[in-house]
Fold this sequence. Notes:
The protein has helices at residues 3-28, 37-51, 74-111, 117-131, 140-156, 162-175, 183-200, 215-231, 238-251, 258-263, 282-297, 304-319, 324-339, 344-347, 355-381, 407-415, 429-436, 448-451, 453-463, 468-477, 494-502, 526-532, 546-549, 557-568, 572-585, 590-603, 606-619, 624-636, 640-653, 658-670, 674-687, 693-706, and strands at residues 384-387, 392-395, 420-424, 440-442, 480-486, 506-511, 515-520.
Amino acid sequence: xxxxxxxxxxxxxxxxxxxxxxxxxxxxxxxxxxxxxxxxxxxxxxxxxxxxxxxxxxxxxxxxxxxxxxxxxxxxxxxxxxxxxxxxxxxxxxxxxxxxxxxxxxxxxxxxxxxxxxxxxxxxxxxxxxxxxxxxxxxxxxxxxxxxxxxxxxxxxxxxxxxxxxxxxxxxxxxxxxxxxxxxxxxxxxxxxxxxxxxxxxxxxxxxxxxxxxxxxxxxxxxxxxxxxxxxxxxxxxxxxxxxxxxxxxxxxxxxxxxxxxxxxxxxxxxxxxxxxxxxxxxxxxxxxxxxxxxxxxxxxxxxxxxxxxxxxxxxxxxxxxxxxxxxxxxxxxxxxxxxxxxxxxxxxxxxxxxxxxxxxxxxxxxxxxxxxxxxxxxxxxxxxxxxxxxxxxxxxxxxxxxxxxxxxxxxxxxxxxxxxxxxxxxxxxxxxxxxxxxxxxxxxxxxxxxxxxxxxxxxxxxxxxxxxxxxxxxxxxxxxxxxxxxxxxxxxxxxxxxxxxxxxxxxxxxxxxxxxxxxxxxxxxxxxxxxxxxxxxxxxxxxxxxxxxxxxxxxxxxxxxxxxxxxxxxxxxxxxxxxxxxxxxxxxxxxxxxxxxxxxxxxxxxxxxxxxxxxxxxxxxxxxxxxxxxxxxxxxxxxxxxxxxxxxxxxxxxxxxxxxxxxxxxxxxxxxxxxxxxxxxxxxxxxxxxxxxxxxxxxxxxxxxxxxxxxxxxxxxx
Length: 719
């Protein structure tokens, strides 16, 4: 067969490989609706559409009502509301698919080369692995589309007159869609800086000549930058709206704002000292290495603007998980540019450089990639979970998530038209706004930049610490008449739950696995309290229908979650019953065994606590909480050797476990090894300076051991 045949066949397989990647992209973008913030966007889209005005002050919260609010996502909110109003939630998913598909199409146009089809498909696949974490119908998807559109136009069409006006229009849209709109002017500024340096500063190798724009294009960029900066001001608050997201970005990670990075996952760093050598975000780490190697190999022919873009977005991505996808785009652009300078004959021996060998090798690689993508897609397609309402499996694609929202609890609020100012956890705010506004005004939602770090830390005193005095002060200040404690995909802090349950003027009206709702005992709430007030002393277990379940293997989440709530409130016998029902559903359910362990521990039944902790540890060996419980059970059973083993295993998994070191100190103190006990106690105090109880306990044991022991019986006189 001729070389032309192999060339044609190689080209066809390249198109197929790229097509398969696009197919997987479209499928993965059809992820079910599960983002909490979407509900706030839908409600605000409705408010703006109906009132034809973008509120400049907060109207959603009871704690910051009237506070200035720069809503720079108002256009996105109108779009999602109108799409949802016309086509429902599946319409929103179709919108996401379309935006993602166009973004990848522009990337294809940017990096495609007939001779580099395999690498194009492979790199697009790597981007997909990073981008999939943002498939939650957020304004981010539009921000990424605008970002890629800017790069595409600046790379290929900057010489066209229409490019300036198209970019200005895109910038206006971007400035009213998402706070990352400053990336548009940043890209142009980077291009201008690199061109300036090439013309004015002696640079190493050929950096001063590679990729230089002609003077007309350079002049066009100079005109474009101020136009884009003015375009950023085309928003409801003009200059204030243009600067606000930039000011927020500059302030993040400094001073009190660090609290957001500690508690919000997407704001945390993708690479830390503990995760650098793990598989976490492997695609992202591979991108950093591959692009760095490519830049080094192509250093003599590298364009300065390419290097700047790579460096800026690498730093940008290292700051927060949500920024990784922007580096993925920079990786793609930089690496494809570098690959263009690498030739086949430079990579392999001369004997393997024939065109036929090159074509056959390329075809095999493309086939392998296609089979791998198809296999991955097949595995992903079956992802799902059990729907406890229908007793059927729910796919993770299309529709609305049945496990991401406390929808039963909110259904209760909506059905009964309950009104008032509600204390709520951070994760529930947007969902409550989306479904209950204006009847319910929330205490807190996902607009961190509006509430501020100081308020968020104040909120933690209630949600994390269960500080009664702080809550009562806020209840009076903000006229709080209800409390919504979300237990869905998280656990209500035991101290907080107890605090609300013990408040004399607050009554529990809803209790289930997804949430607990309290209402203040005031005349406005009397009807609902009289009808729904719950006495947990009379609680009856709600078993699942085992006949309907048949042989389906599931996690008994409703049972184990209610068991946790009951245990937290001190209703140990009822918690045991819920957990035991959970083990009827799934005899190896970790959460049920963990509840059993902790309840038996609280009841002082050391033997049963040990047995349950042992099974829980077998089911999940790397869970340090149950292994610590197992170690403590060993101590109570006077088996200090086994306790020592377990505490050491805890410290192998978590070297910063204060409880692990306290445990070692406890064992050594109990076995008269005072020096070792004090050494471990010192290490524990470094890690946890607030724990005074364990410190006193260990010192008491040491002091007790120092006292001379009395003879158990008097000496017998010699006969």
